[in-house]
Amino acid sequence: EEAIFLRKKITLLRAFSLLIGSMVGSGIFISPKGVLQNSGSVGFSLVVWFSCGILSMFGALSYAELGTRITKSGGHYIYILETLGPLPSFLFLWAEFFAIRPANSAVVSLAFGRYMLEPFFAPCAAPVPAVKLVSLLGYYMVLTLNSWSVTWSARLQTALSVVKLLALALIIVPGMMLLAQGHTENFQDAFDRQSLVLDKLPLAFYAGMFAYSGWFQTSFVREELVKPERNIPLAVIVSVITVIVGYMLTNVSYYTVLGTQDVLASPAVAVSFVQRAFKSLISVVPVLVGLSCFGTMNGGIFTFSRTLFVASREGQWPPLFSMIHIRRHTPLPAVMLMFPLVTAMVCIGDIYHLLNFFSFSRWLFIGLATLGLIVHRHRHPELRSPFKVPLFVPVSFTIICLFTVAMSFYSDPVSISIGCTMVLSGFPVYYLIIHRQIFLSFFPTLSDYLTHKLQLLLEVVQQEIKTY
């Protein structure tokens, strides 16, 4: 009875909540250990955190300009497609689907399970099978909600963004109180160079940038944003500054209360912090942290489903995934597709190995997307973008991203080689299926038959109105 398309339901507040909710998640509660481990000292770790924040701001500003130049949803994928061509965009899609996104979702899900169970098993560690079970239950709940309603997913994200900021405040306030009382002993010899190992710094940056990752989320839902030319830059700038300040204060609080060895030994830094500084909240903070991770899962599913939706619309993914539920107006097939891979990675994965595994591919393609902005400016000098950043911003961000990716081969050659192999494995798939369509030409009837049957089963149809 009404046109089937994705509605513009993301206001400025919801865009801000999406960014805050995606950035402030498991990262600030698990990454301090990885940053400290690979930077070597308290002082250098704080430098890494601040540098990651500035780098994230550079990337966010570059993406904000891309979002005003290119009016389609899809984030990294559509930016690479429109600026560098179909092959690199498909390689990104291939790596994102089979490596980056499921590994990222598995990391956040495992952090959710660990923090939700921590109060029930303290002071002992929660059993690994129980953590994985709760992790999967949380992920399936978010998956169901995103399949059911765009509006309720956005409302949940707004509510959980408030929870996330409250969780940070409960860590920052007691730490700042102790610091004001003169507890600075953990900052003695903060820049001890003896423990600094330069070839490990890329891994420190990966851990830090993982905590900030999410500043690009509005680019995935560009077609669903209200007044995107104004709201994308505004939401990006305010949210990234908020998170930089919050993360720096949170890390200072961690180090004020916990020594270097305590942070390195802790499987859940926020819980160890509360056990030491604020025992009356020992059962509250882990739950708040768990809810923060829940919000990050929600934001991740909400945005990545749009990447698959757009890729299918552009002809680089099966047509079923560009379809929308006839009553719910959600991209149901695209939302449900990640279910088996995330389940597998949660069952077999470890947080820190997964972190290094997907970070290589993610930052390679983000660097290529901002390189695409430079190329797009050169090709279309006549285009007047409503938001434009100085050229040194995307140039600096691109160089740092690609340099960090190259250096990481020395830091963790095994994980990085696996990630590289995953990217390169997309070449024959692109050649056979997308470029020449050799494989599909053998089974056209079977492909159409399966698409039709799944369309009837899921009650989905193609979008009827262009939103870009």
How would you describe the overall organization of this protein?
This protein has 468 residues and is mainly alpha-helical. It has one domain (12-462): Amino acid/polyamine transporter I (Up-down Bundle), CATH 1.20.1740.10. The chain is built from 20 helices and two strands. The chain has helices at residues 12-23, 27-39, 42-69, 76-84, 86-121, 128-148, 150-180, 201-212, 228-257, 260-265, 269-277, 285-313, 332-336, 339-348, 351-379, 392-411, 413-424, 426-435, 438-442, 444-458; strands at 323-325, 460-462. It has a two-stranded antiparallel sheet with strand order 1-2. The protein is globular. The model has no long low-confidence stretch (mean pLDDT 83). This is XCT protein. It is found in: Membrane. Keywords: Membrane, Transmembrane, Transmembrane helix.
Fold blueprint:
Elements: H1 12-23, H2 27-39, H3 42-69, H4 76-84, H5 86-121, H6 128-148, H7 150-180, H8 201-212, H9 228-257, H10 260-265, H11 269-277, H12 285-313, E1 323-325, H13 332-336, H14 339-348, H15 351-379, H16 392-411, H17 413-424, H18 426-435, H19 438-442, H20 444-458, E2 460-462
Antiparallel strand pairs: 1-2
Helix pairs in contact: 1-7, 1-9, 1-12, 2-3, 2-8, 3-8, 3-9, 3-15, 3-16, 4-5, 4-15, 5-6, 5-12, 5-14, 5-15, 5-17, 6-12, 6-14, 7-9, 7-12, 8-15, 8-16, 15-16, 15-17, 16-17
Instruction: Compute the number of structural domains.
Output: 1
Largest sheet: 2 strands, antiparallel
Shape: globular
Mean pLDDT: 83
- What is the CATH architecture descriptor? Up-down Bundle
How many helices? 20
Question: Over the alpha carbons, how many angstroms does the gyration radius reach?
Answer: 22 Å
Helix vs. strand class? mainly alpha
Head-to-tail CA distance between termini = 23 Å
The amount of beta strand, in percent, is: under 5%
The first-level CATH class is given as Mainly Alpha
Transmembrane segments: 12-30, 42-64, 76-100, 120-142, 162-183, 203-221, 233-257, 277-297, 332-354, 360-377, 389-410, 416-434
InterPro entries: AA/rel_permease1, AminoAcid_Transporter
Pfam family, one: AA_permease_2
Membrane topology: Multi-pass membrane protein
